[in-house]
Design brief:
Blueprint: E1 3-9, E2 13-20, E3 23-31, E4 41-50, E5 55-59, E6 66-69, E7 85-92, E8 101-103, E9 108-109, E10 113-116, E11 122-124, H1 131-144, E12 150-153, H2 162-185, E13 190-193, H3 198-206, E14 211-216, H4 219-232, E15 240-242, H5 249-252, H6 256-260, E16 266-268, E17 274-279, E18 283-289, H7 299-321, E19 325-330, H8 337-351, E20 358-363, E21 369-373, H9 380-384, H10 400-416, E22 423-428, H11 430-436, H12 441-449, E23 452-457, E24 466-470
Parallel strand pairs: 1-14, 6-8, 11-12, 14-15, 18-19, 22-23
Antiparallel strand pairs: 1-2, 2-3, 4-5, 4-7, 4-13, 5-6, 7-8, 9-10, 10-12, 16-17, 17-18, 19-21, 20-21, 22-24
Helix pairs in contact: 3-4, 7-8, 10-11
InterPro entries: NA-bd_OB-fold, RNA-bd_AU-1/RNase_E/G, RNase_E/G, RNase_E_G_thioredoxin-like
Cofactor: Mg(2+)
GO molecular function, one term: RNA binding
Amino acid sequence: MGKTIIASIMPEESRMALVEDGELVEYVLERSATGHLVGNIYKGKVKNVLPGMQAAFIDIGGDKNAYLYVGHADANAGRLTVGQDILIQIVKDASGSKGPRTTTGLMLPGRYAVLAPYSDGTGVSRRIEDDAERKRLRQLADKVKPDGVGMIVRTAAAGCSETELARDVEYLHNLWAALAARAKRSPAPALLYRDVDLAIRIVRDYLDDDVTEVVIDNRDAYGRVCDLLQHLAPAALAKVKFYQYPEDIFVHYGIAADLNRLLKREVELACGGFLVIDQTEALTVIDVNTGRFVGDTSLSDTVFRVNMEAAAEIARQLRLRDIGGIIIVDFIDMAKAEHKQAVLAFLAEKMRRDRTRSKILGLTSLGLVEITRKKGRQDLNSLMYSECPCCAGRGRIQSPETVAINIRRHLRWAAAQRKLASRLVIQAHPQVVEILSRQGELARLERELARKLTLESAPAMHPECYSILYDKE
């Protein structure tokens, strides 16, 4: 499986695309104005403790207090009290009105290992499945791990030498020592550790043996990545290339069209079917439809084929859009039990490629598939879009017919209250004016109200709004 990483770095925005076998599967977008907080470590001050919610709110010096679930506070934090200083790490960016979510279980990630300062065990990534390699890495971890800290060996460590792992762990241990010293002398709230930027995280989190090429369009970022690899993994330097052409890097690599379709509600399937993806505050719902596909055999086989193709695309879309939380999938109803089992197994197989932890909970009594997927970064919807000023986020506005009826109702009420002048100008959106101008409609309304009415089309007016003005002429 060949992978290509494409990165576009600007002062205002950093973007990274991961392409597997020619298909876009992951996209990361970060903007300097909104900031990326996940991974940052703060010395915070407890502002409020809510026993009923098993939660505490921590001042970290930002606009919003951070949220700490008491179940995520380890023994080192002790019993939380207002005014207490506490070391916390951001595990989920702020979203909407909610502040960032935190934990006291600090983790410092490197290329080959993750250091856990408040733990004392060792572990190996579950993605390393070879038993002999797992045993070898666990032995190396026990050998190079400093006393008094915990350590997890990352997937990228598969095949690494003792020297490479020891060098990474030494760097992380020195980083923790510096961070702990800074925590002692800094008054809360204070930022103690800022996670590295996207260009460096590409090396730390994404660059593995399957990656054949890393292309970066920013000279400074390219240089920093090469400097880091020279220290950590010199053999990988040959994979990194600087993109120096005037054409946009995503256009050049043929994925700009995919990015333009990234957040569309409907996703077409090759067979002619399609997905409908609706994200809400509480959960994400994905509906599978046959669309134009009618098949050429039996109905059950047609449905099975669409659902199988949909399962692969759903796994890709969850990863590509970084959809987290609760996900409900409404596959087309399948009569055969073996078809249901095959679709679920295929979905699970495709989701195993995802770096983000997820779980398929199975079918509900209504035939819906329940999935949970860990949330982390700020979602693309909130980064790239703002609430529609027309519909206020509903996704719908009143129809022109409804607005026209509202105008008639308003006029009748005002006439009954004797609050209407004899000559009136009604300003409204062109579609509303068209309805009120239908043959005989305006004359009938004038006779009913005993008023002279003039209609004015206002293209710039909000489709749900209208004005009723006194005509002085």
